[in-house]
Specification:
The chain has twelve helices and 13 strands. The chain is of the alpha+beta class. It folds into two domains: 109 residues, Ubiquitin-like (UB roll) (Roll), CATH 3.10.20.70; 239 residues, Glutamine synthetase/guanido kinase, catalytic domain (Creatine Kinase, Chain A, domain 2, 2-Layer Sandwich). The longest helix has 20 residues. Bound molecules: adenosine-5'-diphosphate and manganese (II) ion (4 copies). Adenosine-5'-diphosphate (ADP) binds next to strand 6, strand 7, strand 8 and strand 10. Keywords: ATP-binding, Ligase, Nucleotide-binding.
């Protein structure tokens, strides 16, 4: 891509080898803890860092903290203190050592969860369904943008050649910014995220990685931190990440967050019957699921779930073995083995995984 565009990013032009001089300075027993939270958009993450004089091993050891909710679309200026409750800990791949990333959920002045704290009720559902040992694996798709908000590497006037050669592509004219993808992958492994793979997507500059399978709330927690890590790695390269589910109108694939789900009964011998029973319940609750599957109650997915570009129509529920045009797909291997998991293909790339996983558990296990 023309160097002139990346030079519009102040982050990309800062000399990273100068920063390396300071990276390994001894910090006299103190560590940096970066608290991460979801802001009032329900889509974007925020973070700020504090010093601790011990190395935490459990989130409960960390202090509750606060931030200015009025600057995050979450509170009035006159009553702005919003609380950060640490819920999960990861190693910090950006500063290394004993430094930590601290995922938090957010509470208002009156101790009630903020409007975009979807974790609390998700966790309640996961606890109610604990005996069924639910697993989730989420395929996170995303698109890289240049500083001018055009997809990275696309011509500044006109479009790249039509889709076809880019999915799982190899070569300088097929994929853009593999450096970001590989750096993010390594950083997630270092952090302790159960990232299970990555691939280039159908639209050029669109990529995917998968998190899971993990039990219960863990997949959603890890997915949010993996998104933080992706934004943060891309920041170092002067590149923007968008999770918009249809970043480019027209004959270009949108981006989803296919959510793979199973219970112990589905994974056991003959579990296909349990998978089919869950799909019958999902069919009856299509509208509620669509509402939970993007941050705008289905508005974002209207642009994506058109029935073309490997999607189902937003208006009706369909399912099928190996069918990538269905709302819910049973992978071929699971149909053959008569056990395994189902893939819900409806969640948008910018979904809140807490809302998605909660909807799946409530419909398929807790019966609403
Ligand atoms: P595809 O692109 O063919 O839809 P991927 O390989 O990208 O599939 O993703 C499959 C996902 O399914 C992975 O995230 C994996 O963690 C998840 N997964 C595998 N087995 C299970 C299971 N038993 N329950 C829930 N998720 C699972
Ligand atoms: Mn200040
Ligand atoms: Mn996939
Ligand atoms: Mn994909
Ligand atoms: Mn998939």
């Amino acid at each position: 891509m023309p160097a002139s565009t990346l030079q519009n990013s102040p982050n990309a032009v800062l000399n990273k080898s100068v920063a390396d001089r300071y990276r390994n300075l001894p910090c006299k027993g103190r560590i940096k803890a970066t608290y991460i939270w979801i802001d009032g958009t329900g889509e974007n993450v925020r973070a700020k860092t504090r010093t601790l004089d011990f190395v935490p091993t459990e989130p409960e050891e960390l202090p509750i903290w606060n931030y200015d909710g009025s600057s995050c679309f979450q509170a009035e200026g006159a009553n702005s203190d919003t609380y950060l409750h640490p819920v999960a800990l990861y190693n910090d791949p950006f500063t290394g050592g004993n430094n930590k990333l601290v995922l938090c959920d957010t509470y208002r002045y009156n101790k009630q969860p903020t409007a975009t704290n979807k974790r609390k009720s998700c966790l309640e559902a996961m606890e109610a369904a604990r005996d069924t040992i639910p697993w989730f694996g989420i395929e996170q798709e995303y698109t890289l943008l240049d500083m001018d908000m055009r997809p990275l590497g696309w011509p500044k006037v006109g479009f790249p050649g039509p889709q076809g050669p880019y999915y799982c592509g190899v070569g300088a004219n097929k994929v853009y910014a593999r450096d970001i993808v590989e750096s993010h992958y390594s950083a997630c492994l270092y952090a302790g995220i159960n990232i299970s793979g990555t691939n280039a997507e159908v639209m050029p500059s669109q990529w995917e990685y998968q998190v899971g399978p993990c039990e219960g709330i863990a997949t959603s927690d890890q997915l949010w931190v993996s998104r933080y890590i992706l934004h943060r790695v891309s920041e170092d390269f002067g590149v923007i990440v968008t999770f918009d589910p249809k970043p480019i109108e027209g004959d270009w694939n949108g981006a989803g967050a296919h959510t793979n789900f199973s219970t112990k009964a589905m994974r056991d011998e003959g579990g296909l019957r349990d998978i089919e029973k869950a799909i019958e319940k999902l069919a009856k609750n299509h509208r509620q699921h669509i509402e939970a599957y993007d941050p705008r109650g289905g508005k974002d997915n209207e642009r994506r779930l058109t029935g073309s570009h490997e999607t189902s129509s937003i208006h009706n529920f369909t399912s099928g073995v190996a069918n990538r045009k269905a709302s819910v797909r049973i992978p071929r291997g699971c149909a053959e083995e008569k056990k395994g998991y189902l893939e819900d293909r409806r969640p948008s790339s910018n979904c809140d995984p807490y809302s998605v996983c909660e909807a799946l558990i409530r419909t398929c296990v807790l019966n609403g």
